[in-house]
Amino acid sequence: MGVDSYNIVFGEKVTEFNGESYDNLNVNQLCNNNSDDVITNTLYNHSKKDRYCYVGKYSRFLGRVDEDYAYKVFIKPNTKDGVEDIFKMQNLLFKEGFSSEPYEIVKFNSGDDCHFAIRMENVKGTHITPTQDWVDKLCNFCKSKNIVREDLDHGELGWNIRKDCSISNCIQTKDKLKTYMIDIDWKWKQKDKMKTLVVIYNHNLPDMTNKLWEALHPHRRDDYDMMLIDNGSKEDGKSKYTTHETGQNTYFGGALNIALQYFLDSDDYDSLLSLNNDLVVQGDNFVRSLKKELVGDYKIVSPCVLQNEKQCKWKYMHCWNSTKIRDVKWVDFQAPLLHRDFIEKVKQYSDDLIYGWGQDALSGMICEDNGWKVGVLDWCPLIHYSAQTYKEGKSDLTLNEYCQKAEGGMFNYFMNIGEMDRFNLYRELSAGYNYE
Question: Which of the residues 149, 267, 300, 332 has the least number of beta carbons within 10 Å of its own beta carbon?
Fold first, then answer.
C-alpha cells in the first residue's frame, strides 16, 4: 500500500477494542498512563491465548492470533497530522523490510475521549533480541531518510536504539526480524517537519523589543514559533509581547541558557534563533533565509551585522557583499541560528559566561572540534544598537562595570579549560579578517 493511499476513518469505533472479544477492555483505561501491571493483569486477561496486548510507554498493540491485522493504539499524538507522519515513517520502514505494513489510520471514540490507531499487519512470532548488524542497518536507514528518534528518558536525538530496547521490542517472524515498538513510537519525527524557535530577550528596553517582535511575528507560517523572555525588567520596562519571565536579571548568559533548556525540553524544533533586543531587521524572509543555509555541516549561521555607529572590531561580522555563505571560525552572538545537533552538544553554557561574553568563541571551538561549519550571510543583514540597555542606564550595572565583569568571566573560563591560546587566535583571525 502506498504512502498516500491509506484510509482515514473518522467517528468510527473499532469494535475489537470495546467488545466482548477483548474482555470488555475499556479504551479509556487502556490509554491512561497506568503501570504495566495494571494494564496486563487487570485490564487484559492473558489467559485467553488467542489474543495479546503488548504494552508500550506511549501506545498499546492489540492483536489476535487468528487475524492478519492488529491495532497500534496511541496515547499520543492525538492529532491527525502527528499520526499521519508516523504512518508514513512506518511505511518507509516496511518497504525496507524493517517493520510490519501499515494499512490505515482509524479514529475511534470512547466516552469523552478519542484516540488514533494504525491498523497494521499483525506481528506474529517470537520475541528476540536484535543483532547489532540489524540495529546498525535500521539506524543507518533512518539517518538516510532524515528520521530522528528522541531518547524518551534523556531528551536526546540520535540513531541508536533506545536504552530500554530489549527482548520485548523486536520479533522474529517468518525468518525475518521486525520491530513494532521503535518504528512507530510517537516521538519519532522527520527533521524537515520541525520548526525554528525564535527567542528574543528583553531587559528594560520595551520599545526596541516591541519593534523587533513586530518585524518578525507577522511573517510566521508554519516554520517558526516565537518566545520573548523578560529578563528581570521593571514593570514599565516589560514588552507587551512577553511570553516568559525570569523574575530577576539573569543577564544574557542566563537568559540564553533558559532558552536552550526550553528548546531541549521540546521535540518541535530543529534550530534556535537567539536574538538580542537591540536589533533592527527586515522580517519578511529573515528567518527563512537563515534556515536555508543551516544544512549539511553548517551548525551555526548568522546574519552579517551593521552597527548603528561604527563597525565593530570583529570583521567576520561585517558585510562583505558576498553572494555565498562565508565560512568563519566563530560568529558574534547578536543573532546566531543554532542547529539542534549543536545545542545537544553544548546543552548549557558555563555560569562563568553569565554576562554574555565568550559563548561566541566557545561555540566556534565546539563546531571545529566536531567537524562542523560556521557561516555568515551577507545577504541577510541586521542593524545592531550595541549595548543599548547599558548605554541608556537601564541595567543594574554601568557599561564599564558590565564590560569588566564580562571580560573577567570570559578570560577565567578559557584559562580554566586550557583554551586561552585558541581563544586569542580566534579573536586575532576575526580582527584581521579580509574577504575578496
Answer: 267
